[in-house]
Each structure stands twice: as C-alpha cells, then as structure tokens.
Amino acid sequence: MKWTRKDLDTAMAKIEELASTDMEFRKLCLSDPHTAIKEATGKDVDPGYKLKFLENEGGYESFVLPDFKGSGEELSDADLDSVAGGGTKHKIG
User: Where are the domains of the chain?
Assistant: First the structure.
C-alpha cells in the first residue's frame, strides 16, 4: 500500500500524540519503528524501508545528508596504492 502525503501527516500526528503520553509506545518507537507505526495507524510500512525514531535530547540537531554523487572521477593507481599503504617506501636504519 502506498502512503500519501495526507497518510504521512496523519500518521505523524498520531505517533506524536501517543509518544508524548504513552511510555510503552514511546519505547516501541525506539526499539521497533515498523511495529509502532502499524500500532498507531493500522498500516504496514515496507519492511525494507529504514526507519529510526530519536529521543528529543537537547543540544542535538539531526540532519540527513543528501546522496553522495562523488566527483565522477576514479582514483588513479598511485592514489589507490597510497590509500592501501603502498605509498612512499622508507628505508629504516
């Protein structure tokens, strides 16, 4: 079942309500987000969809980084050797 924007908004409102008043539900959100959403909404979330609830701890902000696109360039053999420990050889003694 596809989730619409309205479904998501409704689910978030319900989850926020439950998580702010029901400690057992709050613990469920942290330990098993898929089950918590099912309990709150009656709807399943694709098991392959990664979810994570976080406690609201002062002093922390969470940011989701965009997908990495890279420079489009591959490392040269010399760069790969350097990263793999094959860089400059030093004579000991």
Answer: 1-55
